[in-house]
Write a structure and sequence with these properties.
150 residues; alpha/beta; four-stranded mixed beta sheet
Length: 150
């Protein structure tokens, strides 16, 4: 039996705020939503796809993301081109997101892959990258992968 990722679940402090970010800014569709006050959640994915959730948001966090605690390191989202990464960079910048690095950066020295690194409203670390097209992009560190420390 071969395992594959089914969906990623994130705890959030404010479902409405997180939905605005993931749905309206990043383009995820809402597949299902629980609106009961103590059990609010949203299953997100592609409405044009097979209807399977890719990301679930659970309103049950009491504080923001803490990179010093065990658990999720970051969530990487892949797009088909660096141009598409730059489109997200513009939209995220207009939204007021703080980026970990200036512009598109390579995953490591000499890498064709690269992207942008930022945080969601609760501080969860996110990456939007393309598998190629970042040749010649700067590298924040020559000794570690870019996605490892931000």
């Amino acid at each position: 039996m071969t395992l594959r990722t089914g969906h990623i679940g994130l705890n959030v402090t404010d479902l409405d705020r997180s939905l605005a970010f993931y749905r309206d800014l990043l383009g995820f569709g809402v597949i299902a939503e629980g609106k009961e006050e103590e059990r609010r959640y949203a299953f997100l994915g592609s409405l044009a796809g097979d209807g399977r959730p890719v990301l679930t948001l659970w309103q049950q966090a009491q504080g923001s993301y803490d990179k010093a605690r065990a658990g999720l390191h970051h969530l990487a989202l892949e797009v088909d081109s660096v141009d598409r990464v730059r489109e997200y960079e513009t939209a995220l910048g207009d939204y007021g997101v703080d980026f970990a690095h200036e512009g598109v950066v390579a995953h490591r020295e000499g890498s064709a892959s690269g992207g942008i690194f930022f945080h969601d409203p609760d501080g969860t670390r996110l990456e939007i990258y393309a598998p190629s097209g970042a040749e010649g992009a700067p590298v924040p560190s020559s000794t570690a992968p870019t996605c490892g420390f931000f």
